[in-house]
Amino acid sequence: MAPKKKFSREEIIDSAFSIAKAEGIDSITIRKTADQLGSSIAPIYVNFNDVGELKQAVFQKIIQLSRQMIAEQQTGNPFRDIGLASLKMAADYPVLVRDFMMKPKVDLPMYDEEMALVHLMKHDPDLEGFSEEELAEILLKMRVFQTGLTMMVANGLLPDEFDMEKMIQLQDSVAEDVVKGAYQRQKRNGEKA
Predict the structure, then answer these.
(1) From CA 37, how far away is CA 43, in angstroms rounded?
(2) Is the pTM of this model over 0.85?
(3) Residues 34 and 114 in one domain
(4) Domain span at 30
């Protein structure tokens, strides 16, 4: 009898990620993951207590992928990098983007993720002089816009001639408007004090 092949935790997560990428996170099951690996379910249960724990590991992989995409942009403008990574994520992983944006995931550490983005924004020379609260508000406003644009990309809802360059131009224009508005509000509030 041939020995059973062992699979690393990372190989199992990659297999489940592949399922999520094609079919959505809710499609991950222990059986499907085992089938994807060409194994029994035993190696999965050696590494994970249940499917919920496996899905959590996939969520963490998606967050890590998102952070990596932000880091790869390197435009010198961290705020812009966040938006560019969002568009790239929507174009490359539309099923995952729809899953993340359309289904509430109360078990994800979204507050920590938001604070990490605010921290990145602090290093953006175009955002100098804003408090953390003001940066968080700017981020929220851009997220509202970016969510709409990202969902349009993920669902193929933009006109054909609306390529990545046009999306980037639109995103940059809206970001500039949001930041200018924030500076104007800050100035008005400073004059009132």
Answers:
(1) 10
(2) no
(3) no
(4) 8-61
Query: Which of 34, 61, 88 delimits the end of a domain?
Result: 61
Q: How far apart are CA 115 and CA 97, in angstroms?
A: 20
Q: Tokens 């980037």 appear where?
A: 168
Q: Are residues 28 and 82 located together in one domain of the fold?
A: no
Tokens of 97: 């983007």
- Taking only the tens place, the pLDDT of each residue in 109-166 is 555 667 788 888 988 888 999 999 999 999 989 989 988 998 998 898 999 888 989 9
The dihedral built from the CA positions of residue 9, 15, 21 and 25, taken in this order, carries a sign that is negative
Residue 102 — pLDDT band, cuts 50, 70, 90?
confident
How many domains would you assign to the chain?
A: 2
Mean residue pLDDT of the chain comes to 88
Q: Supply the DSSP symbol for 2.
A: P
| CATH number of the domain to which 34 belongs | 1.10.10.60
Asked if residue 133 and residue 95 are part of one domain, the reply reads yes
Long-range pairs, 166-171, Cβ under 8 A, ≥24: 167/87, 168/84, 168/87, 171/80, 171/83, 171/84, 171/87, 171/145, 171/146
Q: Is the pLDDT of residue 106 over 60?
A: no
Task: Please check whether residue 146 is in contact with residue 65, taking contact to mean a CB–CB distance below 8 angstroms.
Answer: no
